[in-house]
């Protein structure tokens, strides 16, 4: 039986995006509820969760379904734009979380392991 390596890669990308979304939501939850005085969730964390949702709902389905079912929409430049946009979003997202880890005391707030894991997943998602 033949397995398409790109389909396996897209499945792995979707799984990593789901893990990234869960880690970003965990950071937001810790910052919003588990502190003595809850602080607003930083925009970088919100953007990181957005990038994960964007990858799950737009980028992965577009790159999997369009070449197979809608070949007229699977122009090589459109695929390049989809991949480039996703790559730039992931780069900005994990950089924002890493910068927030450097500037703020996320480890003291209890979100250190989730923030570290989200940066690692963001690097692999890139």
Automatic annotation (TrEMBL):
InterPro entries: Marvel (IPR008253)
Ranges annotated as spanning the membrane: 12-33, 45-65, 77-98
Annotated MARVEL domain residues: 5-125
Pfam families: MARVEL (PF01284)
Superkingdom per UniProt: Eukaryota
Keyword Protease appears in the UniProt entry: no
Compartment(s): Membrane
Membrane topology: Multi-pass membrane protein
GO cellular component, one term: membrane
Protein keywords: Membrane, Transmembrane, Transmembrane helix
Coiled coil residues, start to end: none
Broad class of where this protein is predominantly found: membrane
PANTHER family: MARVEL DOMAIN, MARVEL DOMAIN-CONTAINING PROTEIN
Protein name: MARVEL domain-containing protein
UniProt organism field: Cladophialophora chaetospira
């Amino acid at each position: 039986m033949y397995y398409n390596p790109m389909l396996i890669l897209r499945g792995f990308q979707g799984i990593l995006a789901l893990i990234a979304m869960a880690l970003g939501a965990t950071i937001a939850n810790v910052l919003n509820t588990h502190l003595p005085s809850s602080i607003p969730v930083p925009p970088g964390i919100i953007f990181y969760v957005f990038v994960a949702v964007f990858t799950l709902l737009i980028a992965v389905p577009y790159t999997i379904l369009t070449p197979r079912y809608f070949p007229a929409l699977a122009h090589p430049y459109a695929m390049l734009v989809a991949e480039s946009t996703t790559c730039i979003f992931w780069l900005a997202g994990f950089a924002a979380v890493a910068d927030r880890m450097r500037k703020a005391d996320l480890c003291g707030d209890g979100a250190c392991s989730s923030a570290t894991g989200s940066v690692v997943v963001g690097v692999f998602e890139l």
